[in-house]
Amino acid sequence: MAVSLEHLVRYHEDGNDFLFQIVTGDETWVHHFTPESKAASMEWKHPSSPVRKKFKTTPSAEIGSYTTAGIRNKSTGRKERF
């Protein structure tokens, strides 16, 4: 909440010039890999719990693009600008 209050105070002092300095969007590539091993799948359970069946697994690798939207340079968000 302190950051929001600081932004509000700076907006009050600097107006729209302050808003144009804020970076609100970027595109980032994220590599995701989830290995499945005996150690990774171990969990705490009661001694009388039934034994879990073992399944054949294959590691997966996913590459995704995550984009965050933001305010364009010197734009107020009016539809004529987009």
From TrEMBL:
It comes from the Eukaryota. GO terms for molecular function: nucleic acid binding. It comes from Trichonephila clavata (Joro spider). This is Histone-lysine N-methyltransferase SETMAR. Residues 40-59 are annotated as: Disordered. The gene is X975_20957. InterPro entries: RNaseH_sf, Transposase-MT_Hybrid.
